[in-house]
Design a protein that fits this description.
Length: about 170
C-alpha cells in the first residue's frame, strides 16, 4: 500500500470537518479493521479494500442529514458510495477496488449481504466501536456476537473487551 490511505483519511476528516464524534468513530473503526485484517491474513488487495472501507463507511452521513433531515442506515448506505467514489477515483484507485469499497459501503448495515472476508471484518470492526460508543448491554453484545461475528479475530477481540459475555 502507499500513502493514498493517508490521503483518504484526510479526505474523510475534511468531509466531516467539525464533527469530532464521526471523525473519531471512523478512525477507531479503521484501527480495529486494520488489525483484524492483519490477524486474518488478508491478501494485500483485501486489506486495502478493508482499510479504505473502514475510513469511508459512514461518509454519507452528513449528506443524508442535509438531504433528508435525518440519517437512517439506509440513507447512509445510499449517500455514501457516490462520495467515496469521488474520493477514490481522485486518488487513482483501480475500478475494481473503488467498486468493491462502494459496494460494501452501500450494504454495511445489511448483514445478510456480507459476501467476503473484507466485508465481514468491516462489520465486526464497526460493531466493536459501536458497542462501546452506544453503551450496549452485555446481552446486546452477546446476541450480536452469536448472530453476526464469524471470524476468530473478531471473536477474540470481543472476548478480550467483554470477558463477561461468555463467548
Amino acid at each position: 500500500m502507499d500513502n493514498r490511505i493517508g490521503k483518504v483519511a484526510t479526505a474523510m476528516i475534511e468531509k466531516n470537518a467539525g464533527d469530532l464524534r464521526r471523525i473519531e468513530h471512523s478512525l477507531k473503526v479503521y484501527g480495529y479493521a486494520r488489525n483484524l485484517g492483519l490477524n486474518e491474513a488478508l491478501t494485500s488487495e483485501q486489506q486495502e479494500i478493508l482499510e479504505l472501507t473502514a475510513l469511508l463507511h459512514d461518509i454519507g452521513i452528513h449528506r443524508a442529514e442535509m438531504m433528508y433531515g435525518k440519517c437512517s442506515s439506509q440513507d447512509q448506505e445510499n449517500e455514501g458510495p457516490p462520495i467515496a467514489r469521488i474520493i477514490l477515483n481522485g486518488l487513482n484507485f483501480s475500478k475494481a477496488i473503488v467498486d468493491r469499497v462502494c459496494f460494501i459501503i452501500s450494504k454495511h448495515h445489511t448483514f445478510n449481504a456480507v459476501d467476503g472476508l473484507d466485508f465481514q471484518l468491516l462489520v465486526e470492526a464497526d460493531f466493536l466501536v459501536n458497542s462501546s460508543e452506544d453503551q450496549m448491554t452485555e446481552n446486546q453484545i452477546a446476541h450480536f456476537a452469536k448472530n453476526i461475528f464469524r471470524t476468530e479475530s473478531g471473536l477474540q477481540y470481543l472476548r478480550i473487551l467483554y470477558p463477561n459475555i461468555g463467548l
